[in-house]
Every structure is written in structure tokens, then in C-alpha cells.
Amino acid sequence: MTNWHRLIKNRELLVLLILVILIVLVGMVNPAFLQADTLLSILNSSLILILVSIGETFVILTRGIDVSVGASMGLSAVILGVSLNAGIPLPVSIALALITGTLAGLLNGVGVAFFKVPPIIMTLGTLGTYRGLMLIITGGSWIETIPQNIKSMAGWKVLGISAFAWTTFLIVIAVAFLLRSIKQARYFYAVGDNEEGAYILGVPVRATLLMAYALAGLFAGIASVIFVAQIGFVPMQTGNGLELRAIAASVLGGVNLAGGVGTPFSALVGGFFLTVIDSILVFLKVPAFWNNAIAGLILLIVVLIDYRIRVGIDTRQRRARAQVRAQKMQAAHASLAKEEA
Amino acid sequence: MKVPRILKSWETFLVFLLVGVVLAFGAVNPSFLNLDNLLYSTSDFAHIMLAALPLTLVIITAGIDISISAVMGLSAVVLGVTWQGGANIFVAMGIALLVGIAAGAINGLLVANTDVNPLVITLGTLFLYSGIATGIAGSLGASGYEGISGLPRSFTRLAHGSVGPVPYPFIIILVLVGVYSVLLHMTRFGRSLYLIGVNPDAARFSGIPVKRVIVIAYMLSGLGSALAGAMLTAYFTSARSDLGSEALLPTITAVVLGGTDILGGSGTIVGTFLASMVLGYLKQGLLAVGVTNDVSQVVIGSLLIIVVAAKLLAGEMNRKRLNRRALQARDSVKGGGVPS
Fold first, then answer.
1. Smallest CA–CA separation between A195 and chain B, in Å?
2. Domain for residue A18, yes or no?
3. Do both A164 and A232 map to the same domain?
């Protein structure tokens, strides 16, 4: 296989390549786009989507889907806002937000793993439930005053890059490392690839499912901390529609909804890509109304290119196998003919 | 004791649930039991039903269409823009419905001709269609809260008019329930939807034009959503790109609560119809007894999970019971004395 083939077979690299070309093209039209400030601010606004997408990736790896992550993030953000306003110290409040997210995810996991409720139904139900809880806790009004201590976190910088961005990078790398090096982490792939097979081989399927949904919730909780710090208030729409963007980001980056395929890098690349698209149109002086149309079009194109490539590789492999078989048959016939003679 | 099969069906359960919901709220707030009122309030969730009925067909094929809410907005915008451009309002509505069918055809063609998960395809078109809708509305300066208003009364009557106490939308829905029931339960097309949902390969080998059937199912879903978009436009008397944006989850909930297996292969039109009535009245009833919209979301979300989990549990217990019975039957044949 040539390097070129290897490159386009790797979905993260393919999408990264398209992304770089896109950024360079937009930079040629409007050089302001290529300034470090611009790219850094896009990076900062992509962090929430990236983190939620990493959590979503765990669930999709197990062949599930979680449409409640946006609501889980909203609920965690509300808990964070309420507890900060109640005068609870910052670290404790953050811990409460993370626990809220994890519990929200865990409940999904219990439904999927123990009651065998199909994931989309379970998480559809909790989506409504968590959104309702958000409104009940706040009485339906926005949390507008957030203490300065958490807002100032968004301004922390190391080497000119925000501390949140560093944290997200570290999380991506840590998750990627753990997924490769810990045996139990491979269970996510095993369960998603073949649940029955994994069960027979002794993989604790239920615990793995519980873990995947709990992680999705935990990451939504982490994202809520960044949300509250960056935005500085908690509107009731917090996280609305984020679940679909997170699924789109993961899929764009190469996570397969059929389970068993994907890495945190997929979520990183996909989440950054979708955020870049949102900013590109502004720099091309095209009205931002068309953002979603472009995002949808690119998602479809990438998925279809990927399909063509897979089919192409598949037919090439089949043809190669058929050729080998034909050669063997010929050789066998030849040796038979020789023996008879 | 033998219970007649029809009494054991999911649809019967839904009828009891529907009556139970209406009576329970009526007991708390008697004004809820007013028949005129009950009929009139169906207009509030007519768009959910219009989209849920054809979505049932798609889910039976083991597919899903999450672009329905985007098609609603797109259809509303197309309708408004074409009318503003000088077309007759009903011609504009016809064009909006055609756009819906085309949107469904794109979904169907992509689903039928690739092995990409329908959720991914329609997620892509969800963004695409809603983006086109906001794009058109935005470029024409109609993206505000007002949208395109001033629509003629002859059109808005579609949502607000009635024959006696029965509102037009409900009549349209009843007709569609009939049409889709015949289509699903009495035609070759309908039977092939089930087979495709159970085993697409077997369907192909038995000579069913699988691709064509799938494309038609998604086209019907597009048409249903476009009709829902037009109905919402008439109901709110203005065309906006965000009409229907909240409709996706209730619509899927209605189909699933109606007994359609999200994994494909089973489901009925009547079930979807009854379930959307239950959900609609549940929401209305909670409002009528003073429960806020927030709490009703919690109730409806929990109901969905509990009902599906209970149904799965009941199926599991039924299977165990049948197993036990079969074992007993075997043992009695062997005289019961043979150690296993």
C-alpha cells in the first residue's frame, strides 16, 4: 500500500487534511483568518464541543448513542451556577458539577445495561427529564450572576494558550494513551464490535456499558465548567442541540456508529472542524445564516467519500484474493497434469 | 383462562392509557372533559402526528429520519417565500410539499445506496436542510421572530377552521391514518417494509425492490414533515425557519411509544396515532391541572423509559413462561421420571 492510500484510509488524517486546505484557502481570501488570535479564539470556542464529543465517543464505541449529553451538560451547568451562587467554594462546586454529569450518564447506563432499553430511547427519555430538571431547579429563569472566581478561570493562560485548551489537550492525550495501554479500555471496542462475543470471552459487558455512559456524562460535566467560565451565565438553552453536534463531530472525525471504531483524536479533529466552519463564513463575508448548511454538506461529503474509499478497498482486496485463488488453482491443475503424464 | 388476542395487543393498552389519561385529568379539572375542547386541542399537536405517521414506515424498515424537524422549517420558509414572491398561497403550499418530497428522496437515495447509518445521513441532511431554511430566511430578511406574516385567511383557516366541532387538521390526520393503514397493512409495499426491517438481504433475495421501497418510505416521511411545516405555518399564521425545531424528539417518542420497534420490523399506524394522542393529551392535561411545562417534560421523558422498559420486561417474562411450559410438557411426555 502506498503512503497516499494509507493517508486517506486514516479518517482523522483525511479530515485534518481537508481542514488544513480549508483554512489555507480562507486565509488566501482573507489573511486576517490566519492570525494566531483568530485561530486561538476558534480553538477556545471549540473546547466544549470537543469534550462532549469525546464522551459521546465512548458510548458510540459500544454501539450505543447518547442524545442526552447536551441536557446533561445543561444540568451540570445549572448545578454549578446554583452552588457557586450559594457560596460553595469553587473546587467543591466544580466537583458537584462533575458528579452531576457522571450521575446523569450513569442513569442512562443503568437503563441500557440492566433494563436493556435501546440507547436512543433511554437517552431520549432522559434528555426530556434532565431539561425539565434544569427548569425546575432554576424556576425557569436564567442564572445571570455568576461569581467572578470561575469567570477568571477562562482568562488563565500558559504560553499564550488558555489553560482550558491545555487541559483539553492533556485529556485527549491521556484518554488516547489509556485506551491503548489499559486492557479494560479495550472492552469498549470489544463490546461495540461484537457484544455476544465479548460476553462469551468474559468481558464484563454491563460494567463496560455503565462506564461508557458514565464517562459521557462526566465529559459533559467537564464541558459545563468551561461553558460557565467562558459564557459567564447559564441560559436555559445551555447545551440545546449540542448532542447532535457532538454526534456529527465524532462521526466526521471517523467514529463509526456501528461501534468499535474511533479514538479521542476523532472527536478532537471533528469538533475543531465544525467550529472552524462556523467562523469561516464570517471571514468570507458570507452571512452566518448558512453555517448549518455548510456543516451538513461537509458531513455528508466526508461520510460519502469514506464510503467510496471503503468500497474501493473492499473490491480491490476481493479481486486480489480471487487472483491468488485462480493462480493456486492453475498451479494445482498444472501439477496434476504433470503427474498424469 | 384465555384472553382474546386483541385485548393483549399494544394498541388496546394504548386505548386504555388514552382513556385513563383523559379521565384522570378530567377528575382533577372537569373542564378538561369537554368534548369540543378535547377535539380542539388536537390542533396543538397536529404537526407531531402528521410527521409521526410516515416516520413509522421509515422506522419499520430499521431506518430513522431525524431530518423531519428541519424539513418542517424548510417547508415553512419555502411556502412563505414563494407566496411573498407572488404565487397563489396554495400553489406555494404545493411547492413546499414538493420540496419536502425531494428532501425525503435525497435521504432515501443516500440511505438505500450506501451502507452508511441512516442516523448519520439524516443528521447530515438535518443540518443541511435547516441551514438552507435559515439561509433563505436570513438572506430575505425574514429571520426575525415575525417571520413572513400576513398570510391570507383562506390558508390559515387550514389550521383554525373546523367542520362542526372537528378541526380541519384532525380530519386530515384521520384521513391519513386510514390511507397509511391501508398502505402499510394491506399492500405489498407495506409488507415489504416489514421484511426489509427484519432482514434486508432476505428481502432482496425474495425479489423485493429494496432500494425503491426505502426511497419511497423516506419520501413519504419528507412529505409528512412538509405537511406538518405547512400546518404549523397556518397555525402560527407566519412562516419561520425555526418552526418545528422542537418537534423531533416528541415525534420519535410518539412512534416508539406506539409500539414500533426502533430496531425495525414491527409497528402499526394506529399505534403511532394513539400514542401521539396520549402524549398530546398528557402534556395538555398536565398544563390544565397546573403542572408547568418543565415538570411535564420530566413526566413524559420518564414515561417513555418506563413504558419501554416494562414492555421489554413483560416480553422477557413471557418468554420464560413459555420456556417453562415447554419444559413441563416435555417432562410429562417422558413420564416425568427421566433425570435431565
1. 16
2. no
3. yes
SS (H, E, C) chain B: CCCCHHHHCHHHHHHHHHHHHHHHHHHHCHHHHCHHHHHHHHHHHHHHHHHHHHHHHHHHCCCCCCCHHHHHHHHHHHHHHHHHCCCCHHHHHHHHHHHHHHHHHHHHHHHHHCCCCHHHHHHHHHHHHHHHHHHHHHHCCCCCCCCEECCCHHHHHHHHCEECCEEHHHHHHHHHHHHHHHHHHHCHHHHHHHHHHHCHHHHHHCCCCHHHHHHHHHHHHHHHHHHHHHHHHHHHCEECCCCCCCCHHHHHHHHHHCCCCCCCCCCCHHHHHHHHHHHHHHHHHHHHCCCCHHHHHHHHHHHHHHHHHHHHHHHHHHHHHHHHHHHHHHHHHCCCCCCC
Which residue range(s) make up the domain with A148?
35-286
Give the pLDDT band of residue B107 (cuts 50, 70, 90).
Answer: very high
Examine the fold and report which residue of A286, A313, A328 is the final residue of a domain before the chain moves on.
Answer: A286
- Residues of A with CB below 8 A from B139's CB? 287, 289
Confirm whether A314 is domain-assigned.
yes
Residues in B touching A296 (Cβ below 8 Å): 124-131
ipTM reported for the complex, 2 dp: 0.81
In a shared domain, residues A277 and A325: no
- Can you tell me the mean pLDDT for B79-101? 90
- The residue out of A286, A306, A324 marking a domain boundary is A286
CATH number reported for the structural domain that contains residue A161 in this entry? 1.10.3470
Domain ranges, ordered by start, for chain B: 42-270, 292-331
A215 and A311 fall within a common domain:
no
Q: Given an 8 Å threshold on Cβ–Cβ distance, is B262 in contact with A120?
A: yes
Total domains in the fold of chain A:
2
Same structural domain for residues A90 and A227? Answer: yes
Mutation choice for B interface testing from A300, A307, A310 by most B CBs within 10 A: A300
Residue A4 lies inside a defined structural domain of this protein:
no
User: Within an 8 Å CB–CB cutoff, is residue A305 touching chain B?
Assistant: no
User: What are B264-290's pLDDT values in tens digits?
Assistant: 888 999 999 999 999 888 888 888 777
Q: Do B312 and A115 touch (CB under 8 A)?
A: yes
Mean pLDDT taken over chain B: 86
Where is pLDDT greater, at A89 or B294? A89
A302 and A278, same domain (yes or no): no
What is the model's pTM?
A: 0.84
